[in-house]
Write a structure and sequence with these properties.
There is one protein chain. This protein has eight helices and ten strands. It has helices at about 15-20, 35-50, 60-65, 75-80, 115-125, 140-145, 160-170, 185-200; strands at about 5-10, 30-35, 55-60, 70, 95, 100, 110, 130, 150-155, 175-180. The strands form three sheets. It has a six-stranded parallel β-sheet with strand order 3-2-1-4-5-8. It has a two-stranded antiparallel ribbon with strand order 6-7. A two-stranded parallel ribbon has the order 9-10. Helix 4 links the parallel strand 4 and strand 5 (about 95). Helix 4 (about 75-80) runs parallel beside helix 5 (about 115-125). It is globular, with a radius of gyration of 16 Å. The chain starts with a strand and ends in a 15-residue tail after the last helix.
């Protein structure tokens, strides 16, 4: 049976990049959007580009009905878009792939109620299995044709969720590395801000992370 992956905010660059990396891997992907017409339009474009009939579009609620949910929207928008429909994602695996950022001369993460994105999502949906992942992989890298040789740091307390998401990112060409619990979540999200800062300092760069002499 084909598992359905719903991407909330899937019509954005991060959502389309994830879709491109998972296309033709045997999943049905639902591109969710605030505007269902836009979701359907992006899905049609990706179907034609990738020759994959398993890409569909719709509303963000359509995406929440899927088996696996990817939140490709900042956590400070999740309260308005997802929380009213939390019963739809109860006991499901939820991938939190974004970081709240403050842009300026120095790029910083934005804490909401003194919580980083992963911590906030965990608190909002305690009956779901939350995985913080794909945070250090830029949207431009995901949308490119280049092979990925980066580490994907995955934060979760659920063995079941990690087994699934590590398989997903491996299929995308990334090396999954588990970071247990929430305690290093803020550090990893700060690494995202640092990567973007480096890209800004060194134009043309697409900073990612690798581990040297790491044995998984």
């Amino acid at each position: 049976m084909i598992k359905k992956i719903g991407i909330v905010g899937g019509s954005g660059k991060q959502g389309t990049g994830i879709t491109k990396r998972l296309a033709n891997k045997g999943y049905e992907i639902i591109i969710g959007s605030r505007d269902p017409i836009k979701g359907n339009k992006i899905a049609e474009q990706l179907r034609n580009e990738l020759n994959d009939g398993n890409i569909k579009g719709g509303s963000n609620i359509d995406a929440l009905i899927a088996d696996i949910i990817i939140l490709a929207i900042p956590s400070n928008q999740v309260k308005d878009i997802v929380l009213p429909h939390k019963e739809l994602i109860k006991n499901k695996i939820i991938l939190d792939v974004t970081v709240n950022l403050i842009f300026g001369k120095i790029i910083k993460i934005e804490l909401v109620e003194n919580l980083c994105s992963y911590e906030m999502i965990r608190n909002l949906f305690p009956e779901s299995m939350i995985v913080g992942c794909l945070k250090t992989i830029s949207a431009s890298t995901l949308n490119s044709d280049q092979n990925l040789h980066q580490v994907d740091f995955q934060m979760t307390t659920s063995d079941e969720a990690y087994d699934l998401t590590s398989k997903l990112v491996s299929e995308m060409g990334l090396q999954p590395v588990r970071v247990r619990g929430k305690y290093h979540a803020e550090t990893i999200e700060r690494m995202v801000a640092m990567a973007i800062q480096l890209n800004k300092t060194y134009p043309g760069s697409h900073t990612g992370y690798q581990l040297i002499d790491f044995v998984s």
